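Dear H.,

Thanks for agreeing to be a second pair of eyes. The structure we're designing against is below in token form, covering all 212 positions.
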């Protein structure tokens, strides 16, 4: 069992890293981890991921009640929705990184999967990426959409907003988020050019070997 204080330190460390890499800016985005009792640690509202303090990170019950720390992100409810549907998830990352958000603003032919399988790691770490409808930030009606998508997806894209990515640890969720952002960059770099995405057979092999 990982101690709560250790997980608070991980949130600070990864938040700083994401901020320094330019994947988080201002006070946008939030991180969370799930504790053994089902409560979560989540970054506070209006906090910058680059300047977090361990003791001020919010602790929230599985029902959404603040247990300790500063008031939580107004989007803590959709973190809880992911955890409700994904028992294996121990962490959730939500950021507003440029290329992923740009993808969320486009019209897509297939909103059930908007991330082209350009690389093996996109398939292995992100999988299919559904585009969810737009809701204003903090709108609790988003929870039902997130809950439904989380049943079958480790990652999802909120329209005109940005991605939500879960993982079995904060490190796994962060690395998957970084992979998503890199594939989004490739998507725009190859725009207008004929690409060679992975075949259905190649995707099936990756899923069979790596468990997606």
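And this is the sequence the design step returned. I haven't edited it by hand at all.
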């Amino acid at each position: 069992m990982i101690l709560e204080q250790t997980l608070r330190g991980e949130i600070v460390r990864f938040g700083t890293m994401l901020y320094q890499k330019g994947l988080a800016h201002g006070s946008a985005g939030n991180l969370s981890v799930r504790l053994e009792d089902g409560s979560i640690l989540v970054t506070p509202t209006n906090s910058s991921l680059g300047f977090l303090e361990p003791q001020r990170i919010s602790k929230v019950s599985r029902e959404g009640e603040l247990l300790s720390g500063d008031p939580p992100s107004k989007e803590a409810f959709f973190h809880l929705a992911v955890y409700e549907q994904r028992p294996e998830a121990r962490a959730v990352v939500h950021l507003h990184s440029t290329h992923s958000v740009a993808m969320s603003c486009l019209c897509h032919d297939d909103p059930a999967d908007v991330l082209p399988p350009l690389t093996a790691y996109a398939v292995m770490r992100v999988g299919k990426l559904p585009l969810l409808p737009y809701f204003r930030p903090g709108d609790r009606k988003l929870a039902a959409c997130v809950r439904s998508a989380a049943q079958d997806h480790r990652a999802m894209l909120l329209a005109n907003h940005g991605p939500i990515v879960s993982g079995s640890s904060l490190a796994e969720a962060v690395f998957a988020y970084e992979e998503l952002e890199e594939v989004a960059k490739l998507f725009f770099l190859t725009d207008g050019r004929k690409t060679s995405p992975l075949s259905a057979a190649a995707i099936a092999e990756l899923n069979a070997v790596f468990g997606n």
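Two observations from my side: The helical segments are 4-20, 76-85, 98-104, 120-125, 142-150, 170-189, 200-210. The mean pLDDT is 95.

Warmly,
E.
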